[in-house]
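pinning this so it doesn't scroll away 📌
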Amino acid sequence: MMGRRAASRVAWLSHAPVVLLVLTVTVAAFSPALDGEFLNWDDEKNFLENPSYRGLGEENLAWMFSSLHMGHYQPLSWVTLGLDYELWGMSPRGYHRTSLIWHAVNVLLFFAVVIAVLSRCPGLERLPQSSFRFAAAAGALVFGIHPLRVESVAWITERRDVVAGAFFLLTILAYLKAVSARAGRRALWWGVAILAFALSLLSKAWGMTLPVVLLLLDIYPLGRWASESRRRLIFEKVPFMILASGAAMVAALAQGHAEAIYTWDEHGLGDRLLQAGYGLGFYLYKTLWPFSLSPLYPLETPLDWSRTSYWLGAGVAVLISGLAWHFRRTLPALATSWFAYVIIVSPVLGLAQSGPQIAADRYTYLAGLPWAVLGAGALLWLTQRRRWRLPLIVGSAAILVALAVLTYSQSRVWRSSERCGSTLSNVNRRASSPNTTWGASTRRGEQSGEPSRTTVRRETCARKTSKSARTWEPCSASRASSSRP
């Protein structure tokens, strides 16, 4: 027993230089965000005009654990922000520093998750620790310094992303420990996993589909689905499912409280399905080609079904789903990564649409994890062939340098409202159009000549958006500032 613990300590000590390098690169890539300000994009409602979160007193904590402020139940995230106020007052630099620390912790946790997952993959388990270390470092950096992470890290309002992400990753890590632990310690790791999942949901509810992801891990790489009782595997996920169900109900209540949910008249079933398919293709595309990122990708309602981009994204999603299912036995890693991606991102694909966006960079914070693991696994497998080793190392380094440069540049965008507005205007020229910016649909009131609530929101927001390319001043009375998940 002591020998195993000592070997584990030695292994992690050998990881220390690599981990330090990974964290240094991550912090450097996001360093421009430290000079950011409070943005005129939810930050003003969450912080500048909201004294309730300022501090950790009894009244503050009571508000944090009971509030559905702006359509979210996120008490644990509010606690971190209340602590920020105690430490930094209203200085945004301190808030940005804390968000970056949380993200750095997530990169470290993901490094451990990658090693834990790859070491359980059939055919890879006997490789030397140095190989896993190299692959995990590459995977952690692909996740950590990808430009799609910037919105979650550099926007103070999205503190909930990085806090929820930390406990989401801790849940996976504890679950993998529980599966392989001896009987005496298994219950402990199960308890850690369940507690971590609860804390993740108290930070933000978007990790609610994790129980299904854990079942996927049981299939591959753990192989439990084929070797153990399937009924027992499902039964052991019941505590996670109960927590997830509760979080889903509270999230729906919070969004409804903020009048954030689009009605079926505003956004029909066909449009929602097409949007979901498009989103799956869009996020994969931006993961592979992270250029022309925007603070907002406007939703048009009803969707213009003649747009090629919608059908291309949806078609790619359907094609990959079919291929992943067909090759699930011969290429289980690819199938598991794809279906995990679909499951994780499903709550924000627009099937229950809220907010003015058809997609958002921040939605990839968790959904990008399976692709980083897959990339690390592919790198680990390919580098075992000596003739490929040097080209792969050089190519990987070049990709990581490019991602770091792009993230550094994107972090500068999120430093001010003016920069965000300018980027929004340049990347998405149609953002100033009242028909596509806030995506209001035609309802019966409009058909009868009477302006509906949706029409008023659309026209007011369109006017403000068209004149705010420099100031990026959102309409605080609309979904644009009150409902983004």
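📌 and the second one:
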Amino acid sequence: MVEVADGAWAVTSANIGDVAPTTLSEDDKAAVADGANATLTLRVHALGNVGDADAQAASALISQLGATAGSWNDLSLSLAVQTREDRAATQTGNAVKLAVAVPNALRKDGRTFWLIRVHDGMAEILANGTGTTLEGESKLFSSYLIAYKDAATAATAATQPAARTTVPSTGDASLAVAPLLVGLGLAALAAARRLQAEL
């Protein structure tokens, strides 16, 4: 079965009961053979802080993905065998199927998500997608992270600054050309007078 604490991800497993026998020790198996019941429970609770090794391993992976860390949860296993005290289990013989609902606070159109497990300082992607549920499987249980990346937006054309112009603010471009025409006329007149003087 799966137990989800307040504020944790909504997690379900389709085969947690079937995996229980693969997690039993030899003593557990003997107890079950004698009629004891064995129950494997997946417990999920939110993590406010993670260890430095886990944080560094996750940071390196999400950096390669170009992603952002969303939220951390701890997924742990507890094995209960009748007549024996419950004990923690960090590994199963067969993989546990996981369906993790992406928290509403992280959901956004066009966003890609990754479910990342960090175990003994090693970060590994278990699932990814753009939907609201991430489905994967795992034999190892410790810290888990949902990372995300937004879709790239279309690049907008850079706005070029308006060219400086001498056109008056009236908008009449002919006024700006007038000084140039006057200058050319004066130059032509001066050339004509020099020619007459030489004659």
